[in-house]
Amino acid sequence: MKEIFKPFENIGRNSRLLIIASWVIAVLAFWFISSMGERHLFPSPAQVLRGFTELYNEGLVVHIGSSLWLCLVAIVIAVTISLILSYLSTIPVITPIANALSKLRYLPLTGITFYLAIIISDARTMQVWVLVVFMSTYLTTSLLSMVSAIAQEEFDHARSLQCNRWEVLWEVVVKGRIDHVIEVIRQNLAIVWMMLVTVESILVAAGGLGFLIKNSDKFMNHGRIIALQIVILVVGLSIDFILNYLRKTFFRYSKI
Amino acid sequence: MGYSMQNTLLYVENLSVAYGEKTVIKDINFVEKDVIRKDNVTGQVVAVVGRSGRGKSTLFRALTGLIKPTTGKILIADTSTDAENDAKEVEEGDIGFVDQKYTLFRNKTVYQSLMFALRLKENMTKEQKHEKIMTYLSEWGLEKVKDQYPCELSGGQRQRTAIIEQIFCSGHYMVLDEPFSGLDVGNIEDVKNAFSLITSMHEFNTIIYSTHDIELAVELADSIYVIGYPTIDGKHAEYGTIVKHIDMKELNLAWKDFGMDHIEVVKQIKAVMMQS
């Protein structure tokens, strides 16, 4: 028992499960106790459950689908732009462009949306491109570090096997790092998912989880707000799990 | 042991490599010729020894065409023509290179890596390539791991795969940067066997390797170069060059079991290294 309080101690699987279960019970107990009585900050579990039921009846599944679709479209476009720039960043003439896009992550979203609003009139397209601009900067940053982290030995190895420079790029960077790309998407997903809900709540177009949370917020329906937060967290974690699973299943050599 | 020297296989003249203001190696000159022994296919085994930071790895990167020399030239025998002593300047891929970490493609299995190494052999059919790979895998004890990725191989298995890749892809030359570092006794024996296999396959096959284990250099090589900082006007220069060449063939110590005479050479090399 003492071991679980010792730094760097290796513990068994059962002990680990027991610790997690204890924390979950503690959080749930705190929630139940703190939401009893008339004045409380968080809604009670019963209120949250009621919120779930209401949301489900109002088409929660359709809204989740809408958010996921928006996420997928934005990710595909942003990953394509970022990958092309990151791969081509190995060419000296393209390097400054890739680095500049990476630096743009410090630009505030408001400034970008102003200019996008001038070009785009459709709200859904606007949502997609706000996310694309935002995500591309982060994805490019991570992908550039992925490329620069490749050891010189790997390039030398390909060159010693008579690969020309384009083959080196293809074999070592493109084919050799597909699993890293999935990992980069997974790691940036949390920011993207958080941003997506914000974008949906600012630019109302085709519903989505952000739209639902904004509506619930307007009517101070705390049960619904917490229910939605839980849904957003669970969906986000599920995407994270799926991407990690895909990487480990399809890329046996991937030991990231 | 009787031998003679014929075609020039490697010719290095006034080689220097500098990164900006910093000269790493300078005034490197050496020639390696084809060693002929009666009734014996004898490749060349050349060892390069020297203390850390003296430019061994830079010399190897220049020899393999991975970096362009600042001055000088590196010529190798052009075996694509029938003419004797035809030479060509070294280019990327002419000389096989196995680095210290035995780098392989992380996303290719052993079999896929070897198939990739054979991709330029247009005169071979897919079946012939398969046959060749399977023969090598069996001879080099890698049959069981043919479908494994580099991260699933032991150090010795990775090294053997890296060596076969280079045999398949490059010509007669192979450079190995510290092939014995971090290997256990068994793996060292494997590398020694690999050296014998390579040198017994073709007269022109030439292995150039670096090592910090002077005993292994003296035991295996027939030509040893010591790289160090030269002393000019009583001062150590800040670049690496060849400070001593020991021809084990001339000393009648090449291709012999390690004995007392070899120990004397080891002592000599260590003394030179300490002074440079």
TrEMBL record, chain A:
PROSITE patterns cross-referenced by the UniProt entry: ABC_TM1 (PS50928)
Give the signal peptide, or none: none
Top-rank taxon: Bacteria
Q: How does it sit in the membrane?
A: Multi-pass membrane protein
- Compartment(s): Cell membrane
TM annotation in the entry: 16-34, 67-94, 106-123, 129-151, 190-213, 225-246
InterPro entries (alphabetical) = MetI-like (IPR000515), MetI-like_sf (IPR035906)
Q: What is its main location?
A: membrane
* Domain ABC transmembrane type-1 stretches: 64-243
Keyword Transport listed? The answer is: yes
| Coiled coil spans | none
Listed A to Z, the keywords are:
Cell membrane, Membrane, Transmembrane, Transmembrane helix, Transport
What name has this protein been given in UniProt? Answer: ABC transmembrane type-1 domain-containing protein
Organism from which the protein derives: Fulvivirga kasyanovii
Q: What is the lineage of its organism?
A: Bacteria, Pseudomonadati, Bacteroidota, Cytophagia, Cytophagales
From TrEMBL, chain B:
Q: Name one GO molecular function term.
A: ATP binding
Q: Which UniProt keywords apply?
A: ATP-binding, Nucleotide-binding, Transport
Please state every residue range assigned to the domain named ABC transporter.
Answer: 10-254
**Has UniProt tagged this entry with the keyword Transferase?**
no
Q: Which InterPro entries match?
A: AAA+_ATPase, ABC_transporter-like_ATP-bd, ABC_transporter_ATP-bind, P-loop_NTPase
Superkingdom, taxonomy of origin: Bacteria
Q: What is this protein called?
A: ABC transporter ATP-binding protein
